[in-house]
Design goal:
four-stranded mixed beta sheet, globular, six-stranded parallel beta sheet, alpha/beta, single chain
């Protein structure tokens, strides 16, 4: 007996008949999966006393018009129906699609619009991307729309309140909010450490927020339209961010992020070509269009990669081993970051020291200096993942030089958290740099490490050019 499944997803009635070779897609104006978000004015960003707020979260009033937003992140099943294949490493139907770039996301929006007999929103030309704000098709939310929807009338760090548990969101649950200053004394934590699932889960997990939206905190980070840049507090009516830049914004945090990165105000920036297993997206539509076309230009010309420098900071030796292996393969110059006052050799003590530096936003003084850094086009930057970010000595290095127009290619050793928010932190600290494809290594890697490095160097265009 054939089984007929009816899916109503964002204006498309999908009849999936298992037993028939092809899906039959019946288009309609049904919007059952799109939640009407009534617009209004809200405080975007975070107050100065919010724990671990960042300087780019300037607190200001913003007004957004009504819009429709998908109740869930775009799933693998919907992405496959529209685009014909699934790029996700975790490819179960009801998991969020991942390994999609910003460009993949807007291509999906345009194709879904065409399938739905709606006007596509985006046009990509040689001189930039055009965003037709009057079009009735599917699109990515703006950064302001996303935060308004995530807050759902809340003013606390999370829509759930002052903290968020692993019964409310999918994140690196052993590191709940404020764990950084309570790691050794956890009794006073609002939320105690919970489960770390280590992968995305169904797009309709946990309870929806008060607007009816699922997984606005955690699961996968979500692409939004805007370029990353300082907020223009005067542009407070349906803002769309900067007109050009290198990085697009992702919001909401992912399954391998710490709770602090799930805050409603937290901003992460990534190259729009980035594809990782913890970035996906959700879609929106206008209720009423705005008579405006926004043009944005991305400087995507490749930097010269004729001269590379390997820079690394290592405490336990894993990152140093990886750096040395890269040096052997490339024959590039290498520079180890050492401190005037080194961290302790004791593991528990260095945890406390690194924790204090993070909380103080410290910049430990570096003992040595790179000579003629202007002669290098590419910096392969290695570090361990500390507290879901880079160790503070990495920021000391990045802020100690003018790295404009260079390409930084990160490589990170970790104990299970991948890159955390380290890539975004590098981009925020090293203004004007491009970011290459990063390499993540679990501890000191395994038998495939040498091949993984070879593939990584090739993907970044370095093999045979250095």
């Amino acid at each position: 007996m054939l089984i007929l499944t009816i899916l109503i997803i964002g204006g498309i009635l999908l009849f999936k008949n298992f037993g028939i070779k092809e899906d039959v897609v019946v288009l309609s104006d049904i919007k059952d999966d799109m939640v009407l978000v009534n617009g209004g004015t809200f405080k975007m960003g975070s107050p100065k006393d919010e724990y671990q707020r960042e300087s780019d979260e300037v607190y200001h009033d913003v007004t957004v018009d009504d819009f429709y937003m998908s109740a869930t992140e775009v799933s693998n099943s919907l992405y496959e129906l529209v685009m014909g294949s699934v790029p996700s490493e975790f490819d179960d139907d009801e998991l969020p699609v991942t390994n999609v770039s910003w460009y993949d996301a807007i291509s999906f929006c345009n194709k879904l619009s065409q399938m739905s007999n709606l006007m596509p929103v985006y046009t990509i030309k040689s001189d930039g991307t055009y965003f037709n704000r009057e079009a009735d098709g599917y699109r990515l939310p703006t950064e302001a729309e996303w935060e308004y929807a995530a807050r759902a009338n809340s003013t606390t760090p999370f829509s759930t309140g002052e903290a968020i548990s692993t019964d409310e969101a999918n994140y690196y649950g052993t590191y709940p909010y404020k764990i950084e200053e309570h790691y050794f004394e956890q009794d006073s934590l609002d939320i105690k450490p919970g489960v770390y699932r280590g992968k995305p889960i169904s797009v309709k997990s946990f309870n929806a927020n008060s607007f009816g939206l699922y997984n606005m905190h955690g699961n996968v980070r979500e692409w939004v339209y805007d370029y990353y840049g300082e907020y223009d507090v005067k542009d407070n009516k349906n803002p769309v961010g900067a007109s050009d830049g290198l990085y697009r914004v992702t919001r909401g945090g992912g399954y391998n992020d710490y709770a602090k990165h799930l805050r409603s105000a937290y901003r992460s920036e990534m190259m729009p070509t980035t594809k990782t297993d913890n970035i996906g997206f959700r879609i929106v539509r206008n209720v009423k269009g705005i008579n405006n076309i926004v043009k944005s230009k991305y400087d995507d010309e490749n930097s010269s990669k004729s001269n590379a420098l390997i820079v690394y900071f290592s405490w336990g030796g894993n990152t140093k081993m990886i750096a040395n292996m890269i040096e052997e393969k490339l024959g590039a110059d290498i520079f180890e970051i050492t401190l005037k006052e080194p961290y302790s050799d004791d593991y528990n003590e260095v945890l406390k020291q690194a924790q204090k530096d993070l909380n103080d936003n410290a910049r430990p003084e570096i003992k040595n200096k790179v000579k003629n850094i202007s002669s290098y086009d590419v910096i392969l930057l290695g570090y361990p993942n500390w507290w879901a970010s880079v160790p503070m000595p990495i920021l000391s290095f990045l802020e100690g030089y003018d790295l404009s127009y260079k390409t930084i290619i990160p490589f990170c050793s970790h104990g299970g958290g991948g890159f955390g928010e380290s890539i975004s932190q590098i981009a925020k600290s090293a203004h004007g740099v491009k970011m290459g494809v990063p390499l993540s290594v679990h501890y000191s890697g395994d038998s495939s490490l040498s091949d993984d490095i070879d593939a990584w160097l090739k993907e970044n265009g370095l093999v045979g050019e250095v």
